[in-house]
Write a structure and sequence with these properties.
The complex is a heterodimer of chains A (180) and B (351). Chain A has 180 residues and is mostly helical. Helix content of chain A is 44%, strand content 8%. Chain A is elongated and about 70 Å long. In chain B, helix 8 packs across helix 9 and helix 11 packs across helix 12. Classes of the chains: A mainly alpha (180), B alpha+beta (351). Chain A: It comes from Bacillus thermotolerans.
């Protein structure tokens, strides 16, 4: 596709502009995009900060407008521990404190999916001291995968021993007050 | 201060050792982002809380590790710049953080940044390709801190970080890799998008936004959620192994097709480095890359391999000025740089 402004170079950037709910789209080459920078807001300044970029990312409708998305209906939503509002988070691209993750949980899920390639659940390390029953749960999950593999390979003896391990872990989990 | 002594100080001692695949992979780095549960994130932290937090983190480490605490406010701009050039602190910690500090090990293979974007950034560095080993080391440090302090952790989201691009594992695994063969055969433009599609990022040597000085690239993971630390490292390793293979075959085909041209390029660059009186950092980086390739290919034998890593850092503006003992204008820097490289290579020849 050719650039819609110069009709010469190939278009490498796609802009979506939304004004009063009316959407217009344009395909430009890098040079024209730079020249039209003001209008299309995608700046090439070296000080283009990650916060700005994130602010843009959270704009679900048109992610590459550099103006952060506006969330008027969520103005009231504020983290009571650090007073950060959702709008402030979007503008800065940073949370104010660990509690913000609970406060903005609902808004965060689609954002995380966007930033983390569709993932929104932690699968990695669990802190030793405060992980509580999480370690046991994780171990059970891993053993279940092993169990399936053992069955698939028809290694029934090892499957039986894995099953016993899972049972005893489940027992200890319940006795610690955890849920299966 | 003698030149020799300065070099000893300029190069982190972990860097002078070689690791697996050292001919292509310069270093491996693991970074873990952690925050404490009962404090606001650094951008909103009050000064007295920040000082309290620094003291607590320092204290939690001293029992098992021998680390030196440096607070940013006590360092000069130039000293901070030198630390940035050695990759021991981030530009953000040096310039933007209000109450930043860093804990450094003797050999500079461990650097724990305090009150950067997150309360704690554990960073471990190793020569060559040693991601698994380095992850293990960082994880052990993490355990030591966690035994004493309460982390901000959520069952669903994992380790909570100030920016949601790091939440989950808080892990950034990266390798610094020298790819002159792929650049010369113009394959990087093809390889970079392929790596991006796998959720990994390729950048130039000095972090975000910089170009690839001296054909040195940094490859790191972008995703921190939905994958375990081990899987992230495993995936990065398999990408790096493939790149190593491509780089090796690019070097082989270059030497098969036009050995004399490659040799010519290498020795011309060696000539520039050993003779020039004024040299810009970009040209110096390119020539150093050529010379290092020459060493790897066996064209140059009397120069040690770590010269590239060493001189790349030594010839950065901060280091040159530190060495000169004051601020230098850009042209003065270029003169100093040329002199420093000549002297260093002469030292090498006499060994």
């Amino acid at each position: 596709m050719k650039c819609q402004r110069c009709n010469e170079r190939p278009a490498t950037l796609h802009f979506t502009k939304t004004i009063n709910g009316e959407k217009s789209e344009i395909y430009l080459c890098e040079k024209c995009a730079k020249e039209q920078g003001e209008e299309y807001m995608f700046s090439y300044h070296p000080d283009f900060s990650i916060g700005n970029l994130l602010g843009g990312l959270f704009n679900i409708e048109s992610p590459f407008l550099s103006k952060p998305a506006q969330y008027p209906q969520q103005h009231a939503l504020k983290c009571e521990h650090c007073q950060t509002t959702f709008q402030e988070f979007v503008n800065r691209g940073k949370f104010g404190c660990p509690h913000c993750y609970e406060t903005f949980q609902e808004q965060l899920t689609p954002i995380l999916k966007r930033l983390q390639n569709g993932n929104n659940v932690h699968k990695g390390k669990i802190p030793k001291r405060m992980g509580g029953t999480l370690h046991v749960k994780k171990e059970i999950e891993e053993l279940r995968v092993k169990l399936q593999q053992a069955i698939a390979h028809e290694e029934f003896e090892s499957a039986a021993s894995i099953r016993d391990q899972i049972r005893s872990l489940e027992k200890s989990l319940l006795s610690k007050g955890g849920e299966l | 201060m003698s030149l020799e002594r300065f070099i000893n100080q300029a190069v982190s001692s972990w860097m002078s050792n070689e690791g697996p695949h050292s001919e292509i992979v310069l270093s491996s780095r693991i970074r873990l982002a952690r925050n404490l549960a009962d404090y606001k994130f650094p951008s909103l932290l009050q000064p007295e809380k920040a000082a309290e937090l620094t003291a607590k983190i320092n204290e939690s480490m001293q029992e098992k590790y021998d680390l030196e605490l440096l607070t940013m406010e006590k360092l000069s701009t130039l000293q901070k710049r030198v630390l940035v050039e050695k990759h021991l602190i981030s530009p953000y910690l040096s310039d933007a953080s209000s109450y930043g500090a860093v804990l450094l090990s003797d050999t500079e293979d461990i650097s724990i940044m305090i009150n950067e974007e997150d309360h704690i950034r554990i960073q471990c560095l190793s020569p060559g390709l040693q991601l698994k080993e380095t992850l293990k080391k960082a994880s052990e440090i993490d355990d030591v801190i966690e035994a004493k302090l309460k982390y901000a952790f959520d069952e669903q989201r994992g380790y909570l970080t100030s920016c949601p691009t790091n939440v989950g594992t808080g892990l950034r695994a990266s390798v610094m890799i020298h790819l002159p063969g792929l650049v010369l055969t113009q394959q990087m433009n093809r390889i970079i998008p392929a790596i991006n599609q796998l959720g990994f990022v390729v950048r130039g040597i000095y972090g975000e936004g910089s170009e690839a000085l001296g054909n040195i690239f940094q490859i790191s993971n972008q995703l921190t959620l939905g994958k375990s630390e081990e899987d992230i490292v495993e995936d990065l390793l398999s990408i790096v192994h493939q790149i190593i293979n491509h780089e090796e075959s690019a070097r082989e085909s270059l030497s098969n097709m036009s050995s004399i041209h490659l040799e010519d390029k290498v020795f011309r660059s060696y000539g520039v480095l050993t003779n020039s009186r004024i040299i810009e950092s970009k040209e110096a980086a390119q020539c150093l890359s050529d010379v290092r390739l020459g060493i790897d290919m066996g064209y140059i034998q009397n120069v040690s391999r770590c010269i590239l890593n060493e001189l790349m850092i030594l010839t950065q503006p901060g280091f040159l000025q530190q060495y000169a003992g004051g601020t230098l204008r850009p042209e003065e820097r270029d003169i100093r740089r040329a002199a420093l490289i000549r002297e260093r290579l002469k030292l090498e020849e006499n060994c």
